[in-house]
Amino acid sequence: MKSYWMQSDGVNAEIELRDTEKPTPGPDQLLVRVKAAALNRGEFILGHGLHKAGTAKPIGMEASGEIVACGSAVTEFKVGDRVMGRCPGGFAEYALMTERETLSIPSSLSWEQAAALPLTSAVVFDMLVSQGRVKAGEWVLVTGVTSGVGVTALIMAKALGAKVIGTSGSQEKLDQLRSQGLDIGISTRNPNFYDAIMKATDNKGVDLVINTVGGSVFAECIRSMAFEGRLATVGYVDGVLKAEIDIEALHSKRLTLFGVSNKLRTQQQRAEAMPAFKAKILPLIESGHIVPMIYKTYPFDQLLEAKAAMDSNQHLGKIVLAGTA
Q1: Which parts of the chain fold into alpha helices (H)?
Q2: Residues 32 and 110 in one domain
Q3: In whole angstroms, what is the distance from residue 223 CA to residue 220 CA?
Q4: Pairing state of beta strands 206-211 and 294-298?
Q5: Of 23, 118, 25, 33, the residue nearest 73 (C-alpha)
Q6: Residue 320 bridge partners (DSSP)
Q7: Distance between alpha carbon 309 and the CA centroid of its chain, in Å?
């Protein structure tokens, strides 16, 4: 079968399409013929540590497809089912999903929309609900709101009843996100959004920050937080890994700072949130309150072009790679 691999020397990375053996499902796994797989920026950033220097590995992290074989211990799914899920090596003709991290695809979703949901939505659920404890009526700030994670955070936060402020260097993209419910868009890539946030929130600040940008805006995020505010760090596309912390603000405002990463989590730890995700988010997907925003779907043989579009920040929402059939 065809499968994309990435080789890293710790500084640079090369992506190549290989001919490999079709994987065999273990007892709790599903073999899926991939119909679509979504791109995630973090997988390609060597600084995130997902690729060890001197090694090569199949790439792709979330996908949708049709089950063609089930492991001996699988009970919830059968051959022919339409599924979506976390899917290591998803940029391939066939890939494996683990049963407890797999979801049935609602009939309202296309293959492309389904592929854009599993990993990104689980990460956003972690930020907003599991750790972020967002409530209806609260203010949420999303820095870099026009990214794949940013748009998903906006859509899910609005479906949960929150109000959302987003920052982006593109006013045009912010204007487009009005249709997704963005309450306030701040056109900037710099840490200068405090005044606008205070004005919007009657000088209270935001209750939850989703920082997809990194250290360059970290201090301004802290400054913009309300009493008992929470701050999620999910990425650092700016490459800035160090930032000052206002200890006085942390102390006096009783702030909570947390990271969102699956790098060191076990499969069991990742799967623990699935029942809550199914109960709280799947009904919102099925009812149409949460619909993934797809920027563009590229043919299977154009992964490099898809990555180039992502690297140049052309996109608004998720970029998807189609399956081979």
Answers
A1: 41-44, 111-115, 118-125, 148-159, 171-176, 194-200, 218-223, 247-252, 267-271, 274-280, 282-286, 303-311
A2: yes
A3: 5
A4: unpaired
A5: 25
A6: 38, 297
A7: 17
Q: Are residues 105 and 164 in the same domain?
A: no
Q: How many domains, the chain?
A: 2
- Residue 266 forms part of a structural domain: no
Local confidence band at 323 (pLDDT 50, 70, 90 cut-offs): very high
Span 23-77, pLDDT tens digits: 999 999 999 999 999 999 888 865 544 556 667 899 999 999 999 999 999 999 9
Specify whether the CB–CB gap between 201 and 223 falls below 8 A.
Answer: no
Q: Are residues 37 and 94 in the same domain?
A: yes
Is 210 within a domain?
yes
**Tens digit of pLDDT for each residue in 224-238?**
999 999 999 998 889
- In angstroms, rounded to a whole number, what is the distance separating the alpha carbons of residues 104 and 221? 37
DSSP structure string for 242-277: -----HHHHHHTT-EEEE---TT--HHHHHTTHHHH
Q: Which CATH number is 234's domain given?
A: 3.90.180.10
Residue 67, domain extent: 2-117+292-322
What single letter denotes the amino acid at residue 282? Answer: L
Claim to verify: residue 136 and residue 235 sit in the same structural domain: yes
CA distance 62 to 86: 5
> Per the structure block, which two tokens stand in for 262?
């699956």
